[in-house]
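WARN retry 2 of 3 for item q-0093 after timeout on previous attempt; input resubmitted unchanged.
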Amino acid sequence: MRAYGPASKRLLRPFWRLMGMELSHRVRQILDLLLRSPSESTVAEIASSIRVSPRTVHRELDTVESYLHRHGITLHRKAGSGLSVEGDPSQIEQVRSELLMPAEIEYSADERQVYLLARLLGSREPVKLFTLAHEMKVTVPTVGADLDDLTDWIGKQGLLLIRRRGYGVEITGSEPLIREAIRTLVRFRLDDLSLIGYSEQNPHHPVDARIASMAGADRISAIEETLWKWEERHQEESFSEEAYTDLLIRLSIAAARIRKGITVTEAEADRLTFAV
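OK item q-0093 returned
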């Protein structure tokens, strides 16, 4: 699977409730930058500030604009120029106050579901529902409802979600398909450039931190150096930039899994070759 389909997008991005919107950590960052800026900000500037790609910023702008509109603030989007907000100064200040990050991280419905996928794909043992609820500071029924929503997507990846009373919950399946699911999560949540440039020294949302860890972000530079040397010795094997980046991240995911003692069986080897 190369990317989320329309149905999966709806799964991981629930409709906004009429009485309020659940904002991801990234959307909050973009809003804060726009509301603090005295002049226009380009997409590239915003992307650089929050360490994501411009494509990622563009993807979030509809949500940003909708949120501002509900608070009586207009987002101006000028092609070739930049982004700016217009509204009553007191209203802008009020919205800024509302966006201040709470002492404890809050998870949107989107972030809860991605966190659950990352948590379960990265675990070698069943995890209790109570543990998952405690980690995200929500109720056990909320976790159960999120898992209900995720069951169909997990099945479409060729994996199985197991839930048993007293046993816990886990995702099972062949190692190649689990790695492919992790690759999809990386593409959905972080985008490739932000993973390659990931630094643990910078603050990150727990969802991003967990996915980056699963993908081996702490050692991806060493893998990139090895891959670069291999490409130098095999110049007849040319990769497009997209293919090179995809291979690098897949190798990094594989290395991270191997370091945890999780390897591919001989019976699974052909499937892994096909997936890569």
